[in-house]
Amino acid sequence: MAVLRAGVRRALSEYREHILHNDQDALNLWLLHHGRVREADPKYNRFEVGRFLERGDWVRRVVTRPLCPDPDAAVVHFVGPEKPWQPECPATDDVREYRALLGRTMRHVRALGAAHPEPTGMR
């Protein structure tokens, strides 16, 4: 962890012009510049853009892939400060799918007797 912390700290200062979301961007830049990454299939790097399309058309100028939800995606990354487990997050198709899967998962967890707190609004 010490190596990771030092690398992220260095990335925060050396590559600050590329950093929008401090923690994740710094970690990604450190990994990229130290050869600790492997290219992954695009299905592992899909992020939800529906909420940004609701607020403006800028996404079409930045994102080159199709902007509709992809049922074959292995991972959907939610970018920005609003996360799907927060009630104020706009209910896009991807957010609704996430909430449905989280609800189903939490029902299984409760049935197993887990005593961990649940995210707000997921009961």
What's the N-to-C terminus distance? 35 Å
Q: What's the story with the biggest beta sheet?
A: 2 strands, parallel
SS elements, strand count: 2
In the predicted model, the low-confidence regions spanning at least 5 consecutive residues are none
Overall geometry comes to globular
Count of separate DSSP helical elements: 5
Which percent range fits the helix content? 40-55%
Oligomeric assembly: single chain
**Structural class by helix and strand composition:** mainly alpha
What does this 3D model show about the protein?
- The chain is mainly alpha-helical.
- The model has no long low-confidence stretch (mean pLDDT 78).
- The chain has a two-stranded parallel sheet.
- The chain is globular, with a radius of gyration of 17 Å.
Question: What characteristics describe this protein?
Answer:
two-stranded parallel sheet; mainly alpha; globular; 5 helices; single chain; 123 residues
Compile the SSE list and pairings.
Elements: H1 2-14, H2 22-33, E1 46-47, H3 50-55, H4 58-62, E2 76-77, H5 93-111
Parallel strand pairs: 1-2
What's a concise summary of this model?
With 123 residues, the protein is mostly helical. It is built from five helices and two strands, in the order H-H-E-H-H-E-H.
